[in-house]
Amino acid sequence: MSAWLEPQEGVSWDCHVTWRRRARLHDERRTRYETTRGEARDARWLHVKGGHLLSFQDGEALYVVRMERDRVLMVRRGEVSLTQIFAEGKSQDLVLRAHGKELPVRAETRSVEVSVGEAGGRAHVTFDLVYADQEAQFVDLVFQWVRRS
Fold first, then answer.
1. Is the separation of the CB atoms in 11 and 46 below 8 Å?
2. d(CA 25, CA 79)
């Protein structure tokens, strides 16, 4: 069982957030991995009713990530914008807005693990992302944060 700090509504702290997204991509001849990472030293961790919320900006986008015990909602705004709900077994049709284009995608969440303690936490989700007429990409996404003193 994962650690879960019960939210105290209205409480918030400065924090340091790191994230990693690793996608397994297939083409006709091979499988390859594409990893992207981000960091925000001036992030905010808020306790909200029923969960925890991270608000941060890295070099590419503005993020809001809401975590509950068994669900994660991610909103990303920038050159690439997307709103996605991660809940184990959930399938979702989405619109990915990237560089002035709208791309329909389908996301199927495989797993969600959220762990929150006094000093910070971790949200780990795995999902399949399917673009029209392409094979599914398996994506492993992790958000970690540490409370600043």
1. yes
2. 21
Encode pLDDT of 23-52 as tens digits: 998 777 888 999 999 999 999 999 998 899
Instruction: State the distance between the two ends of the chain, measured CA to CA, in whole angstroms.
Output: 27
In whole angstroms, how far apart are CA 141 and each of 41, 100, 113?
19, 24, 11
At 126, the amino acid letter reads T
CB 109 within 8 A of CB 88: yes
What lies within 8 Å, CB to CB, of 30 at 6+ separation is none
Q: Residue 72 and residue 13: Cα distance in Å, rounded?
A: 20
Q: Which H/E stretch holds residue 33?
A: strand 31-48
Burial class of residue 36 (count of CB atoms within 10 Å of its CB; 0-12, 13-18, 19+): exposed
- Global confidence as pTM: 0.91
